[in-house]
Amino acid sequence: MLGRDARQDRRQILNIGCHMPQFADYEQARAWLARHPQVRAIDLLLPDQMGIPRGKRVSVDELEGIHREGLLLPGSMFALDVLGGTVQETGLGFDEGDADRVCLPVPGSLATVPWLGGEIAQMQVAMYEHDRTPFYGDPRHALARVAARFREQGLRPVVAVELEFYFVDRERTPDGRAQPPRQPLTGRREHNTQINSMAELDQYSAVLSAIDEAAKAQELPTGTVLAEYGPGQFEVNLHHVDDVLLACDHAIRLKRLVKGVALQHGMEATFMPKPYRDHAGSGAHLHVSLLDADGRNIFADDDPAGSPALAHAIGGLAATINDTIAVCAPTANSYRRFQSEAYVPLNPSWSVNNRGVAFRVPHGPPGSRRVEHRVAGADANPYLLAAIVLAGIHLGLKQKLDPGPVVSGNAYRDATPTIPLSWPEALTAFERSSFVREYLGERFATLYARTRRGELQDFRSYVSALEYSWYLTTS
Fold first, then answer.
1. Pairing verdict, β 350-352 and 359-361
2. Residue 438: which residues within 8 A CB-CB, separation 6 or more?
3. What does the alpha-carbon distance between residue 329 and residue 327 come to, in Å, rounded to a whole number?
4. Terminus-to-terminus CA distance in the chain, angstroms?
């Protein structure tokens, strides 16, 4: 017998026209393995609430059974904090005996893993109940439910993800902090850099080339790589695709790839939002447009600000930004990014060709009109980020919401912060939001909030070295 929340989520899936999932075909996998006879093992990747890949490594002989019967993993995979501990308040731990669900392969996700050698491949999986209905706690399914609302209206989201990250030294400073790596060519440890620096690109050319080659091997649609503001900080852009689930699959795989290739080159890569106090944070920017049934961009317009539909979409994002900061900024470190004149928005501002706002309409020809969501840190789960962005756009279109005045010039001038700028505030706004519950589902929203709040409570229980330095002898 399904509980009230489970029945509500099941009705929601049916009411929004969400199709039954398409599972990966083993015959295609077998053909792929025939083309890659050196592969001996497969890493099965299940991204958790934070987008951290969990899972198992299996032999190729086990792959047919996994396609047909699934890989059993506990539902508590989606009740973990960043350290891998189960947040028991979710009810997915001891309360249900750490019960297994079925994980099935994501179509088209079987790929080589160049940085681990030729014998290892990888494949994504998603979690289902034993009757093959989507498990409510899997963020990939939460995104699928939101995307289904657009299909009902004959619309197709086109999405591109931009991810910023730092290369850091594998060795920490004596007090445990991250530090820039020694530059591969000069051997110097650079603590400053310049935006779009070609010299910075030259220094890291070998590792960046290896990232590009690995991305090609995995058929990831990577494009521009540019040096960002911080020492050893870069941005990799993924090309837009008209399948939002695939776009986020690409982002998950790219993050694993960047980290793996960096290790191969003697350094680490981090998507931590603010690894250094005095340098720029790392964000995840999402570009979104919408195609109608004839393949036309409904945001297209000769006006640089886009069509009325684009204005309504931005209005929805502005109206829901406070409710969704807990997704855009999911950890304690996330909130250190939010500083004035740091290219991180402090309120629901929007503009054309202005990187200081939350929602930017990039410059380009009329057909390219889109909104760039610039709020999230690089630690945000791509599926959940896309889900809340699309949900805000959907609400804005449905209610024809006004985005407010266009910002011109310095977006931070005379702008009092209005979004939640602390983890507890953001979680409270998320928990109280009827918008979040409607679009993500009651049970998923509760699960996410409890997981993040459990980690918050654990984090706050620790006494930092800085507190001892400041207060031990002065108090």
1. parallel
2. none
3. 5
4. 58
CB proximity list for 106: less than 8 A, separation 6 or greater:
24, 123, 124, 125, 126, 140, 249
390, 147 Cβ separation under 8 angstroms:
yes
240 in Cβ contact with 160 (< 8 Å): yes
**What's 196's DSSP letter?**
T
CA distance 135 to 143: 12
pLDDT value, residue 1: 32
Query: In angstroms, how far is CA 32 from the centroid of its own chain?
Result: 28
pLDDT band at 21 (very low <50, low <70, confident <90, very high): low
Spatial distance between the Cα atoms of 241 and 196, rounded to a whole number of angstroms: 26
Strands (E) located in 321-368: 350-352, 359-361
In one letter, which amino acid is 253? Answer: R
Residue-wise pLDDT tens digits, 422-449: 999 999 999 999 999 999 999 999 999 9
Pairing of strands 222-227, 111-112: unpaired
Residue type present at position 396:
G
Q: Is the pLDDT reported for residue 18 higher than 80?
A: no
Closest CA to 113 of 39, 175, 25: 39
Query: How is 263-299 classified by DSSP, letter by letter?
Result: HHTT-EEE--S-S-TTS---BEEEEEEEE-TTS-BTT
Cβ 431 vs Cβ 420: under 8 Å = no
Structure tokens at 330: 């999911």
Tokens of 166: 């730092």
What is the number of H-type helices and E-type strands within the chain? Answer: 13, 14
- Cα–Cα distance, 214 to 334 (Å, whole number): 29
Characterise 445 by phi-psi region: left (phi > 0), alpha (psi -120 to 50), beta (else): alpha
Q: Indicate the burial class of 341 (C-beta count within 10 angstroms; 0-12, 13-18, 19 or more).
A: exposed
- Are 96 and 129 a contacting pair, CB within 8 Å? no
Rounded-to-integer distance, Cα 145 and Cα 244, Å: 11
Which residues make beta-bridge pairs with 71?
103
Per-position b or e across 442-459, b if 16+ CB within 10 A of its CB: bbbbbbbbbbbbbbbeee
User: Which residue's structure tokens are 């409270």?
Assistant: 428
Residues 381-429 pLDDT 10s: 999 999 999 999 999 999 999 999 999 888 888 778 899 999 999 999 9
Identify the H or E element spanning 255. helix 244-264
